[in-house]
Specification:
- There is one protein chain.
- By secondary structure, the protein is of the alpha+beta class.
- The protein contains three helices and 13 strands; from the N terminus they run αβββββααββββββββ.
Length: 249
C-alpha cells in the first residue's frame, strides 16, 4: 500500500505545486481574458491555406492538471478562420466555428504547437474536415479520462498525416482510445498501448516515452533533452514545438 501511495503522491506533486503558486482570486469565466495572442497570420496577410494547433491551460483548478487543445484552419483565399474543437458545455460537443483562432482560453495564453501553410496545408484541409466528421465520440464528453477536447485533437492528428505532431503530456485525454487498446501516436512515428486512458505507455521518436497512470503522464523526451511531469509538463533544454512547415510564398 505504501508504494502505491508514494506513487500517487509523486503524480500529484506537480499539480499541487502549481495550485500553491496560482493566484487564489476567483475569476468568473465570463470575465476571463479571451483576446487574441496574435500567433495566427491575418487572412489579409496570408492568402495561402493555414492549419494551426494550439494548447492553453484549462480553466480554473483543471489548469493545474491539464491543457485544452484545439485546431484552426483557413482555406486558400478565405477571409476567416475556422476553429475546430470539443467543449464540455452544450451539444454538439464537436464544433467548427468561424472565430479568432488564437484567443486566450479563459485567461490562459495559447501556445502554438503546429503551424503549416501553403500546399501542405491545402492538401491536409479535406482530410482534417473528414477527421472532424468521423470523430467517434461526438455525443460523449468526460473531462477525465476522456473522451474530451484533447481526445479530439489527438484523433485528428493521428488521422491526418500532414498534421502529425506530438501533444503535451499535460493534454489529459489524448491517450483515450475507447474500446481500442493499440494505436499510433499523435506524432505519427510511434505506437501506444492504452486501457481507457487510465493506464498505458506511449513511445516514438517524436513523441518520446510516456507512462500513463490514472490519466496523468510522465516520461522522457530524448530528442529535446527533457523530462515530462504531470501538471508541470515538458521540462528541458529544448521543446518539440512549434512544428512548422512554412513554405515560401
Amino acid at each position: 500500500m505504501r508504494p502505491f501511495l508514494l506513487l500517487i503522491s509523486l503524480l500529484l506533486a506537480g499539480p499541487f505545486l502549481l495550485a500553491a503558486g496560482n493566484d487564489t482570486d476567483d475569476v468568473s469565466w465570463r470575465d476571463a481574458d479571451r483576446s487574441s495572442a496574435e500567433l495566427a497570420p491575418a487572412p489579409t496577410d496570408e492568402p495561402r491555406a493555414v492549419i494551426q494547433v494550439y494548447s492553453a491551460r484549462a480553466f480554473d483548478w483543471r489548469g493545474n492538471f491539464a491543457v485544452h487543445t484545439w485546431l484552426s484552419s483557413k482555406a486558400p483565399g478565405a477571409d476567416h478562420y475556422e476553429v475546430h474543437q470539443v467543449t464540455g458545455w452544450g451539444q454538439p460537443y464537436v464544433r467548427s466555428t468561424q472565430e479568432v483562432p488564437d484567443r486566450a482560453w479563459y485567461g490562459s495564453a495559447p501556445r502554438l504547437l503546429l503551424d503549416i501553410r501553403g500546399d501542405r496545408a491545402e492538401t491536409a484541409l479535406p482530410k482534417l474536415r473528414a477527421a472532424v466528421a468521423t470523430y467517434p465520440w461526438p455525443d460523449l464528453y468526460r473531462a477525465w479520462p476522456g473522451p474530451n477536447s484533447n481526445t479530439f485533437t489527438a484523433w485528428v492528428l493521428r488521422n491526418v498525416p500532414e498534421l502529425h505532431s506530438p501533444l503535451p503530456n499535460t493534454a489529459v485525454g489524448k491517450d483515450y482510445l475507447g474500446l481500442r487498446s493499440i494505436s499510433g501516436t499523435p506524432g505519427g512515428s510511434g505506437y501506444q498501448l492504452s486501457l481507457f486512458g487510465v493506464l498505458g505507455i506511449l513511445a516514438g521518436p517524436r513523441d518520446g516515452l510516456e507512462l500513463n497512470l490514472l490519466g496523468l503522464s510522465a516520461g522522457l523526451d530524448p530528442l529535446s533533452l527533457a523530462i515530462k511531469l504531470p501538471g508541470l509538463g515538458h521540462l528541458g533544454m529544448e521543446e518539440p514545438w512549434p512544428v512548422q512547415h512554412l513554405q515560401a510564398p
